[in-house]
Amino acid sequence: MKTYPRTGQGPLVLVLHGPNLGALGRRDPGHYGALDLDQIMDRLAKLAGELGLAVEGLQSDAEGDLVEALLAAAGRGVAAAVCNPGALAHTSYAVRDAVEACGIPVVEVHLSNVHARERWRHHLAVAPVAAAVIAGMGPASYDLGLRAAADLLARPA
Ligand code: DQA
User: Residue 95: what pLDDT?
Assistant: First the structure.
């Protein structure tokens, strides 16, 4: 597990990365781009400053860590989450249930266009309970995910 401490001021957005996303930069750049996770989080920290948000991050290869982070989020003041569940997006009803139960808007992001890849990646277990889904923009999927979170937080309750 790797954590990225809070940076910026404003409503807090938690950025969650699931299994194998710690290996970005070494994984197929044709699907995932050339940036590693530290570089993606640096970009997000800068963008958060422009959007008037704070961000913090967590990458874990363990499903339970993502579930715990989601369920704890609202109670410690997290306003929204951007989540790339990795392959758990296709298989994990535990992450799906945590997204549904967490009480904050969750934007699901994927670097690659999962709909244009192997058939098993077309099934999305978490997406039906996400506030929005962004896929296929490479590292910019995370930027767009943060912008989507900002937009959702600016909407009247
Ligand atoms: C991914 C797509 C998943 O199918 C894959 O298992 C990943 C990364 C993406 O960001 O494109 O690990 O979530």
Answer: 99
Which residue type is seen at 130? A
Ligand 1 touching residue 20 (CB < 6 A) = yes
Q: Does residue 28 lie within any of the structural domains?
A: no
Q: Beta strands of the chain (E only): which ranges?
A: 2-7, 12-17, 54-59, 78-84, 106-110, 132-135
User: Could you say which of 110, 115, 122, 142 is catalytic?
Assistant: 110
CATH number for the domain including 124?
3.40.50.9100
**Domain encompassing residue 47:** 10-19+33-154
pTM for this structure?
Answer: 0.98
Residues 111-117, mean pLDDT to the nearest whole number: 98
CB of residue 110 inside a 6 A radius of ligand 1: yes
> Residue 84 pLDDT more than 90?
yes
Q: What is the 157 CA–ligand 1 centroid distance (Å)?
A: 32
Q: Whose CA is nearest to atom 9 of ligand 1?
A: 110
